[in-house]
Amino acid sequence: MSATAPSSSAELIYTIEPGGMLKGSLRVPGDKSISHRALLLGAIAEGETRISGFLAGEDCLATLAAIRALGVQVETVDAGRLKVQGRGLLGLQAPQAPLDLGNSGTAIRILTGLMAGQTFAATLTGDASLQKRPMQRVIEPLTAMGARIESREGGRAPLTVHGTRPLKPLRYILPVASGQVKSALLLAGLYAGGYSWLKEPGPSRDHTERMLSAFGHGCLKENGWIGIHGGGTLLATQVEVPADLSSAAFFLAAAAMTPGSRLTLENVGVNPTRDGIIQLLKRMGAEIRLENPRQLGAEPVADIEVEGTRLQAIDIGPEEVVLAIDDIPALLIAAAAARGTTRVRGAGELRVKESDRLQAMQEGLATLGVPVEATIDGIQVTGVERFQGGEIQSHGDHRIAMAFAVASVRAKAPLLIRDCRNVDTSFPGFAALAARVGLGIASREGGRA
């Protein structure tokens, strides 16, 4: 299992035939957020952590390469199954070279928190896209804890983290709800003297809190604050990674907006801090049912059944956006097929993802003949009966590429989507799975984008 896919100068292009319906059942790959966290907590636990369902996408493989560079032994048992030989809280080793996190914002932000509590310096970097993304939101509170972090202008990567032990305990209100920043600070809090307390202006993903409890180091929750005590021991455990809801979101949206579709998505994580895509599609009139609900380790899972129908436009406010931040591109495709005008507010965070997702969705939807207008922190989309075909630029963003790929079910002419290689960061095998349930998709190598 290598850290990254083989490099290629050729662009990857999706070509997709119009129309069709989604039928059958499928299981999308393992949850990316949970896979990252299982590796990182396993690395600092005592004993052997066993992970099943691990997402072998490029983002998570970058995290795997990073913890190996920090002295952690990881054995690949077979597809999706790993054994991580933890080194304990105090056992990580200085890397011999910069840690390349590729395109992964999750990896670089959470690892910055983990490196803040070490006794050595580590440089964290990534690809050109990652180096444009804002890191000041994690640099500022970690600096207040005593870490020294060097960055490029504007708090951009590469970041060189000069760890400090012990860190100062922190009491901090996050200006923006962010599961990545919260996780970075919780891991840094493991190296602080005493309790660190965090508060967010709204909910964000709680995978780290759940997983810390599974490793025997739970968090306290009091009056909206989350507390974590420094020191102690994390005990190795078994982590079963459910299927990723944010990967399932593209198929959910496509099936929901296409009358005649009937699709089952198996063993999907339905954590209530990130199930916004399900709740918002239901509010649009989607026929979605959660069957066989159960607990998979620390996470709730279910089989999701969806039947196609004609959807209705809705208004989506900031408090709903945060529960579906990665799924807004898929949701906007559904909105483009809904009756009326869907308005999204409070989504400015989408402008600093792998691409400016508001701009990318505006450009792509306009190409499809959908009335659309983006604002500084939002977007409005007026639904149409059928989409035009045409050429879409994904801007190297995996979620933009997959969103427009599934839009083909409501198109009346073929689609060509450019610059799709980064789909492998979160969803290796996307095109093959999509074809299996009814999408007329093929991929080919093209010239450099």
Envelope shape: globular
Output the number of helix runs. 13
Please state how the strands of the largest beta sheet are arranged side by side. Answer: 22-23-1-24
Largest sheet: 4 strands, mixed
Relative strand content: 25-35%
Task: Name the features.
single chain, about 450 residues, alpha/beta, four-stranded mixed sheet, globular, disordered N terminus
Furnish the topology, listing elements before pairings:
Layout: E1 11-16, E2 23-26, H1 32-43, E3 46-52, H2 58-69, E4 73-78, E5 81-87, E6 99-100, H3 105-116, E7 121-125, H4 136-144, E8 148-152, E9 156-162, E10 171-173, H5 179-189, E11 195-199, H6 207-214, E12 220-222, E13 225-229, E14 238-240, H7 245-256, E15 262-269, H8 276-283, E16 287-296, E17 299-307, E18 315-316, H9 318-321, H10 328-336, E19 341-344, H11 357-367, E20 372-374, E21 379-382, E22 390-393, H12 398-406, E23 415-418, H13 430-436, E24 441-446
Parallel strand pairs: 2-15, 3-14, 6-7, 10-11, 18-19, 22-23
Antiparallel strand pairs: 1-23, 1-24, 3-5, 4-5, 7-9, 8-9, 11-13, 12-13, 15-17, 16-17, 19-21, 20-21
Helix pairs in contact: 1-2, 1-6, 3-5, 4-5, 7-10, 10-11, 10-12
